[in-house]
Batch of 3 targets.
Target 1
Amino acid sequence: MLRSLECLDCRQVMPLAEHYNCPECAGELKLSYEYAAIRRRGEFARNWRSSESIFSRFGELLPHASASSAITLGEGNTPLIRAGNLENRLSPRELYLKLECCNPTGSFKDRQVSVGITVARSFGRRRFAVTSSGNVGNSLAAYAARSGTSAYVWVSQNTPAAKRRQIDVYGSRVFEIESGHRRDDEDAFDNSYEIAVRALPSFCRRNRLVPMTSARPVNPFMVEGAKTIAYEICADLGCCPDVVAAPVGGGGLVGGLSEGFRDLREIGLTDRVPRIVAGQPLDYFAGIDKVDDPDCKGARPLDANWAVESIRNSGGNLHRLARSEILAAQAELAATEGIFAEPRGAYALAALAAEAGTGRIGNGTVAVVIVSGTGLKDMAAAAEFATRHNLVSSSKVNSIWESKLDPELETRKSHRSEGG
């Protein structure tokens, strides 16, 4: 067998089966693969540059290899485009955008959900649950509809209305969790939604639901889907980039990317792992670099340690980003490259800009920025974006001939900076 589960706590190795944590010590599990056998067989190397599904191309390094029984909406194979205008400003030799916003429900989470739900269906499971700020919930609802299964999604009161409505459209059951409250005895915020994230695994065990949180401590199968982004980057470039910039929420995307590049190195398709430059907002409920700090109280990102280790081992950096930096990056993506990302989708570009400011992006660097989600997911943020940058400029006319056009040679004012 090419796949097994390994406990990161007690180090027990077990055959691939439906375990979401270690049956011996309840520790965190990860998938392991027999790299020497995969390299010797050569099937992955023959298929990975094709245009087929992620299961056909990358099945030997996923927990479920059968493309014929995969639950898929055509996720993956997202564009990798050269960003010449941003390249001129940030000064790498080559800069590319990996447009994960082009996945079926508008974010990279489709890769993870497709893998997770496919594995669960192979075990005969039909009922799924997740707590989600929006993107995982959207994705699970769509893939549950595709597979004729049931999905239950818990969202916070802060989930954008467009994301909430998308879940409704697919027919999943939605529950809204009320906001938390500040405790009088501690300088910490008791976030009911984050508490629910951690309660989900035990709730699912009690109610025979599959937990679909895209974090390795909750579902070790789902996070394998993020590896396919790394595979596609190297397949499309024909080499491994020097730097990959990625957004950070809970940390699973960074961990999955790192794992994917290591997979390719282990089977001989690249000789290195790129530096990972990660971006996380300063106002995120807990920084992944602070989870072991005694002053860090309350909820913590589930994949924080995995992400920090991945960044450190790659020689990369974590940048904690101010809101103004994120909005500036979001505006610059739209104004210079025609890509409208949701704020989280712009974290990676903001991080790369911060990294360039340290002088660590040389003119020989090949860099890739992960644009993780579309701006159309959050129409309230889109309206704020348009207002902030004076982009609401509609005019009423009785006929097309009355329309006043700009002078032919006049260029519109750039809205590259946060202030517009």
Target 2
Amino acid sequence: MSRAFMFPGQGSQLIGMGQALAATYPSAKAVFDEVDEALGQSLSHLMWHGTQEELTLTENAQPALMAVSLAVIKALESGGFKLADNVAYVAGHSLGEYSALAAAGVFSLADTARLLKIRGQAMQQAVPMGQGSMAAIMGFAFPEIVAIASEAETAGGVCRAANDNAPGQVVVSGSAEAVARACEIAKERGAKRAVELAVSAPFHCPLMQPAAETMAQALADIDMRPPLVPLIANVTAQPSTDAEIIREQLITQVTGVVRWRESVEFLAENSVTELVEIGAGKVLSSLARRINRDLQLDALGDPETIDAFLSHHMNK
């Protein structure tokens, strides 16, 4: 049996996430302490005692979600679990790709936290508040949404298929008016649902080009090592093992499509039978269920699930 670890993206954040990990595992608490120090802010206090609104700000949510995922990894390691020996691939949804890379040893924890703070700020600043939007459209295949987005653009603005999440669930991103138009076109053609997402910027579309340029500069100076196990990259849905190629892919990823459906399909077609979601929530597990019902799914985000996983795995 082959296993892959997957790391969640924005939308999984919740006040209190990671608090039980810090209270239970010294190695997990050390992750939150190091992230706080790297950022020069008490992100952990915001995560555990702040408001959901403040936590959801892109520049906070991105490093916070990464910190929870890496706290889970450190808790597993403290129980004797070695990623390189027990995991065939890692993958992460959007910002989760950075969590995956940190877990696989490509970035240091401090560098990952700083990169995600920069990424969050750059994405937030690329488009003025209210001018961009994202919406999830249910009931169409990815090529159909590409065509609908293209049609929505003809009347002005930007609209692109941004996240190919699962069969029948594609997210479009772009100018607020063009995204609204895409939703209307989709509904007229029989979409099950077209729902605007509660995000603060239109991610993964050409409007993010200023953020991509910022990330190119930020990543240029960062020390990167080859991953302990291959990364399934968002922009290719294929394995990456070369640090320099991964650096380029992270820049492309800011404006590029998150090819999540294809990533999970690749894993299933390459002997992976177990997918384990590492960090906050179970968003990726529910998407994986829609992509391939034969995959065994697990989600590790609190001491109970981690201890159960370790006892099952380490006692085999």
Target 3
Amino acid sequence: MPTILITGANRGIGLEMAKQYATDGWDVIGTARNPEKAQELNEIGNARTMQLDAADDASVESFTSELGDRPIDLYVHNAGIYGPQEFDRDGWLELMNVNVVAPVKLANALKNNVAQSNDKKMVVISSQVGSIAENESGDMMYYRSSKAAVNQAWKSLANQWKDEGLTLTMMHPGWVQTDMGGPHADLTPAESVSGMRQVIDNIDHAQTGAFHDYSGREIPW
């Protein structure tokens, strides 16, 4: 069976993704900073919970060492934070570390695992607010900047690894009813994940480096 690795799989979109892929028979590896607290993830039948703080190099090295050379068909970097809402140098740097540096670090660490699989796909959960073309309000500057930066980094990786057969894409999950999105958001996690899965399934290698939302709409840079 194919294997999916999902970071931040202990709640919200990541947890729903783990549930849906597990239900469809995939082998699921879900990461959490505190696996002992990831009760719902731990209860999924064919899912394995592994400890990972993707923003910490020592944790990434320990994680990849434990993972070994296991092939990963689909790597989804879902873990992220919202960050400060007003100027805070340390908070902004932490935001960039978690939302930009961490997924790029882990993508490099997992490159060989993904390259050895059948599907060879890497997805980062981004946001349409990372689109410069669609920024008409100027709000969420710090969060926006992190998503624009990870889009640029992921696009660069897509180009660097294109000849090696890896397919990378950035996904906007929509406005989802999670801790970050709030209870009045447009979509349930199930609706968001179902849509993203269809998009991910249909993306072929010719589309590597594309930026889509959960409905399949290509988002302008």
